[in-house]
Design a protein that fits this description.
This protein is of the alpha+beta class and 104 residues long. It has a domain of 66 residues: Ybab, Chain: A, CATH 3.30.1310. The chain contains two helices and three strands; from the N terminus they run αβββα. It has a three-stranded antiparallel beta sheet. Strand 1 and strand 2 form a beta hairpin. The longest helix is centred in the last third of the chain and has 38 residues.
């Protein structure tokens, strides 16, 4: 592959990566804890956008348990967002993404 063609392919891959990043910003995943008592919604970049608590998750006598549930749900949402991002980036960039690795 000549250098000009490689640059052209890299530019295409960069444009595609930007499109995928924009798409990920609009996608959401939901992390849960305690069978859905705590739900954390994150966008495709892993940024938390919402938290939902069922009333039975809140025990004023045991705030530490609620903190633990929130942490589990946040970690679950972020893991799902990372998985979604990897899937979208891998599928969207195809072979060029594999060639260029983590550049984009």
């Amino acid at each position: 592959m000549n250098f000009q063609k490689l640059l052209k392919e890299a530019k295409k891959a960069q444009q595609k990566a930007a499109e995928i990043q924009e798409k990920l910003a609009g996608m959401t995943v939901v992390g849960t804890a305690a069978g859905g008592l705590v739900e954390v919604t994150a966008n495709g970049h892993g940024q938390i956008v919402a938290i939902s608590l069922k009333p039975e998750a809140v025990d004023p006598e045991d705030v530490e348990a609620l903190e633990d549930l929130l942490l589990v749900a946040v970690q679950d949402a972020q893991a799902k967002a990372a998985e979604l991002s990897e899937k979208e980036m891998g599928g969207g960039l195809g072979q060029m993404g594999q060639m260029l690795g983590g550049l984009f």
